[in-house]
Amino acid sequence: MALAGESRHGMWSNKWLFVLAAAGSAVGLGNIWKFPYIAGENGGGAFVLVYLACVFLIGIPIMMSEVLIGRHGRQSPINAVRSLVAKSKASSFWVLIGWMGVLAGFLILSFYAVIAGWALHYGWLMGVGTFQNADGAMAGATFDAFLANPWMLLGYQTLFMVVTVWIVSRGVIKGLETAIRWFMPLLFVLLLVLLGYGITSGGFPEAVDFMFAFNWDALSWDGVLVAMGQAFFTLSLGMGAIMAYGAYLPDDASIPGTVTTIALLDTFVAVAAGLVVFSIVFANDLDPSSGPGLMFVTIPLALGSLPAGEIFGVVFFVLVTFAAITSAISLTEPALAYLVEEYNAKRGRVAISLGVICWILGIGSVLSFNVWADVYVVGSLTIFDFFDYVSQNIMLPLGGLLIVLFAAFVLPRELVRRQIGFDGGVAEILWLLLARVVAPLGVLAVFVYTLYQSFA
Q1: Per the domain annotation, does 5 fall within a domain?
Q2: Torsions phi, psi of 146, nearest 5?
Q3: Range of the domain at 121
Q4: Gap between the terminal Cα atoms of the chain
Q5: Domain contains 328
Q6: Rounded Cα gap, residues 123 and 143, in angstroms
Q7: Cystine design at 244: which of 10, 334, 406, 435 (Cβ 3.0–4.6 Å)?
Q8: Nearest to residue 186, comparing CAs of 356, 342, 24?
């Protein structure tokens, strides 16, 4: 018996396409760039263990909430929440969930495309041998010179946006599904190739020890909160992407099963990327906690000094680019789906319009690294910093918190049971405990901690 109708935008051919699409949304720059360096800063294995616990205790309940709302509504996040609010006779306040997710995703894409452009450029630099036998000063100067060139940054941002718009304009089947069918398997293949390279590079034992040895002394309460935040952000929660993808999920797919699979795939990529990065770092006696510079200074420097390093450097940055594209198309989908529904517009025209607006917003982020480096929106925040701060630290946590509260407290219990497949047993009790208590308190702790750190 069908749980709901079909989305007007199309449906995933099967549940595994949804798993790959949602995993593609979750697997992004945060897995390959951010996870390794924050693990390095917070005690390695102890941090990884806390992170994994947070993924399952906080991330999965919120993702299940997003998927069930999307699948029942079969519309864009805004209209899906709006229809459920009407059905539940709840306050119209809850519609804010949809609007906040759509806006957050749009803002994130505007500066995400800029960073993704960096990966495109570095793939080229590795291919032409720029970092062959380079030293630290040269690698740092190359990165600084690139950021100081607004035209080059703009060119790569434009290229990335054009690719993203072309994919999403083709629809769920021809665009999203086709891209996912190619990019996600290739992403995993490239990651395994790099992992094999890491194993043979000489630094793999140290990388394993660093990531999985339990150094509890190096893990502070601040580190625990960082792990909670990373577990939340790495799954693309609170930005409407998972809700939009859930609207295309077949009725016979198990939400708990598919969400758990997505979380495991996302975690695998994060851990494997960490092993790749740290193998290269330790093989070259470099600092494993060198921050964001790991990706654009340390890794090119290390690979440039190794045999066949240029080849594997290209592979690494192609991997990063694929991860960025799969995330970018999911960031576009919530706003695109809403505008198609609201104005009965053609998908291609809406995609181009959104792409142009997002590209224009992104120019501010491009200039934040050079011409407008001294222009501050609030305090010491440049345009890039401001978009990043507002979306990541305010809109996404609030969106995730409201989503799980809406699903756990506002939606009719029977609707939730029918979507998730509960029958009143232990699984439902565990769901209620996580969705009503553990996940909200976890997200709230991260939210308060982040604000405190910002104003302390």
Answers
A1: no
A2: -65, -45
A3: 15-455
A4: 55
A5: yes
A6: 13
A7: 334
A8: 24
Residue 89 in domain: yes
**Contact present, 308 and 48 (Cβ < 8 Å):** no
Dihedral angle sign, alpha carbons of residues 258, 260, 261, 263: positive
Q: d(Cα 336, Cα 227) in Å, to the nearest integer?
A: 32
Q: What is the CATH number of the domain that holds 131?
A: 1.20.1740
Residue 146 lies in a domain: yes
Domain count, the chain: 1
Query: What would the pLDDT profile of 267-316 be if each residue is shown by its tens digit?
Result: 888 888 888 888 877 877 776 665 556 678 877 877 777 777 788 888 88
Sign of CA pseudo-dihedral 314, 319, 320, 321: positive
- Residue 2: the pLDDT is 38
